[in-house]
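Researcher: Sequence recovery benchmark, item below. Answer with residues only.
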């Protein structure tokens, strides 16, 4: 009997590990440790992890993927005074950066620091209300010179990771942490494979943790892992944008924390497969699992590359709605994560060869 992972402990481990694009190794190691007891684990040549879970049939092949990387930064240069200029890795809104703590991962170990800029006290009155541009920010690690920073191990290209502790809020079904985008998806992949390994499914399932999602315009780990798996059906398991905060209108974001996982109807990179969408929604209703529909016209996921693999792969994005993504601290409801696991397990158990053929060819 497969042991059931404590999802809170798993989520804490995953979110606290450093893993900006190109530096996903610590997160991949955690995923490997959890998945090796239930599946055959390998990697592609970019570093995406692929866990194969055989079922009653070799095909259809079901790909279920969360991405390993989180938004972060890279050291671009060291100033003569010992401050670090940086390149964002992924989409950052400059207003969430100032005075935030970070950790610079050097060849000699991690160095804590803080993102700074010219103090507002020194700015002319007409500049104080303007947004500070990222190019005018820097990271202060306490070094007094370029030479000292280099002696501490800093080198251009070093990854810089947001510092955001894992916290359960007073309502302990809500968690606050960095990197919930998309360690939540990675946690769901682990739990789905554990549930399927303890039962039965009429297919072969590939639990994938991709690299480079936050920076890739060409596919990154999504493209290489799809090539390795050659799936018949694909799910990108990624967080949605919760719209239950002041100032957000229903036509901008509909999802609410605690109301179930989100099924994405549209994003700027793909249209989901209509028949697969209906199967997932019908399954949720049959199983009594709450779910929500939403759109994300300003973003995209790995499904952008899954759905155009080969002759085309019916694909869908499913995941828990989350507040404040791409920042040092996001909020997620554990019920949404657990219901995403229930929904995906139920759907995968319905994806036999006849059903997949009907989905693909009408």
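Model:
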């Amino acid at each position: 009997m497969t042991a059931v992972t404590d999802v809170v402990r798993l989520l804490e481990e995953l979110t606290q590990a450093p893993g900006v694009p190109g530096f996903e190794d610590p997160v991949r190691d955690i995923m490997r440790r959890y998945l090796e007891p239930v599946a055959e684990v390998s990697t592609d040549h970019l570093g995406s992890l692929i866990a194969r879970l055989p079922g009653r049939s070799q095909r259809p092949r079901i790909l279920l993927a969360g991405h390993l990387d989180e938004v972060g930064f890279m050291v671009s240069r060291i100033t003569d005074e010992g401050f670090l200029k940086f390149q964002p890795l992924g989409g950052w809104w400059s207003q969430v950066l100032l005075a935030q703590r970070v950790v610079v991962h050097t060849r000699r170990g991690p160095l804590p620091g803080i993102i700074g800029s010219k103090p507002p006290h020194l700015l002319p009155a007409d500049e104080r209300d303007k947004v500070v541009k990222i190019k005018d920010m820097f990271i202060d690690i306490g070094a007094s010179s370029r030479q000292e920073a280099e002696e501490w191990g800093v080198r251009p290209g070093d990854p810089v990771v947001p510092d955001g502790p894992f916290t359960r809020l007073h309502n302990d079904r809500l968690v606050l942490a960095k990197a919930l985008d998309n360690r939540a998806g990675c946690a769901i992949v682990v739990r789905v494979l554990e549930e399927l390994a303890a039962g039965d499914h009429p297919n072969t399932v590939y639990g994938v943790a991709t690299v480079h999602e936050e920076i890739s315009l060409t596919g990154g780990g999504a493209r290489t892992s799809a090539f390795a798996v050659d799936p018949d059906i694909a799910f990108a398991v990624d967080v949605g944008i919760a719209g239950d905060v002041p100032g957000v209108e229903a036509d901008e974001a509909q999802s609410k924390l605690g109301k179930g996982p989100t099924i994405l109807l549209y994003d700027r990179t793909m249209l989901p497969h209509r028949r697969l969408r209906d199967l997932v929604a019908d399954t949720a209703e049959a199983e009594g699992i709450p779910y929500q529909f939403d759109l994300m016209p300003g973003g995209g996921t790995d499904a952008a590359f899954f759905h155009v693999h080969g002759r085309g792969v019916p694909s869908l994005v499913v995941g828990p709605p989350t507040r404040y993504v791409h920042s040092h601290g996001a909020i997620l409801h554990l019920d949404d994560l657990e219901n995403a696991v229930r929904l995906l397990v139920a759907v995968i158990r319905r994806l036999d060869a006849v059903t997949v053929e009907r989905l693909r060819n009408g």
